[in-house]
Design goal:
With 435 residues, the chain is mainly beta. A hairpin with a 6-residue loop joins β32 and β33. 7% of the residues lie in helices and 46% in strands. It is globular and about 75 Å long. It has a five-stranded mixed sheet, with helices on one face. Strands 6, 7, 36, 37 and 38 form a five-stranded antiparallel sheet that branches. One of its GO terms (molecular function) is ribonucleoprotein complex binding.
Length: 435
Amino acid sequence: MDMAEDGGEGSARRLQVRFVTKLNEPFKVPSTAIAIPADLNRFGLSSLVNALLQSNDDDYKPEPFDFLIDGEFVRMPLEQFLLAKGISAERILEIEYTRVVAPRKEEDPCLHDDWVSAVDGSSSRFFLTGCYDGLGRVWKDAGLCTHILEGHSDAVTSVSVINSTGMETVTVATASKDRTLRLWKLNTEEPIKHPIRIRAYKILRGHKSAVQSVAAQTSGEMVCSGSWDCTINLWQTSDFNAEDDLVSKKRKVGGQVEDSQIEGEAFSTLVGHTQCVSSVAWPQRETIYSASWDHSTRKWDVETGKSLTDIFCGKVLNCLDVGGEGSALIAAGGSDPILRVWDPRKPTTSAPVFQFASHTSWVSACKWHDKSRFHLLSASYDGSVMLWDLRTAWPLSVIKSHSDKVLSADWWKSDSVISGGADSKLCISSEIPVQ
């Protein structure tokens, strides 16, 4: 079959191709080989696939596609791509197509009273934000704040859901510049018309300087925190029988009876960083990862408290996350526009296996997608959030919802991105078709 339609491009030379996809109906085209112009780029290829789909279904609505050849995204005209990769143009070329990973919808922003410095979207039922006004907030959706977490005396720098799966009552943690962490319990299932103000059930004291990051162990039994005092502290989320005792423990404040708050001390401290510990992650029960202003990321053994591996990159690091293939890749960003990814399973070199360099200012946040080994996001002081795929060096999508620095970002419900910024907004970009 010879396809004359070429999406507005033409060429004397033609290639024999077969389009394949992992997408379900209505996105499947016939698998027969067709001849197409050799100079088609991704937009021309997208027009062509949409024309094929429309020819089989009058109700089909066109949408943009991305294309891969031998597992790599095509970001130049076909003929140029084949030449650059040393791929023969004489064989029938198999081209995989997939939906473009970009938001289809922008929700109304959730307004805060100050900078939105922290977000956590790990629960599909709600998301958390932390703000420079000293408050944490729980949101059921855009514009629907259900709980206000009050008690910190300075900016909230980090928030983390400790456990939420299959439970009405969830536990969350907040970290603050006031040198403390606080643990909270709340019911996210009860219908709420106005935000409920709640107090922490436990205050964790021990850091000698501002706490910059908090992360929960997968079991929810412990949290760890990174601080400007260069240490990582480990904390228990509850004492023996503490939750039972809390029901009967009361105190009078301003003539009103309130639940008491326990104070907790760190049961272990990890020492080794020489500058601020800016980010911590706890992806496996026995292993903690950290990033620091001392230019290093470290992997820690929880049981021994020893640093197992150190990776130095020569830059101040602001953020870190662990995920990707085998949940083993370390992504980190800092005081230059580059998002770096290391594979610690390759111990012979500390060089990143991927570097993404499309931002124009410091990288403030990075996060792997929870269901894809290829996809991750980054946020930057340049005001943008970028979506990345390890199979191409260019961003899949650039989200420009903020009018100032983006300070925090996360995935939510696997198909949305939530981001907080110095414009005091929490923005939600949704309907992102990540495969």
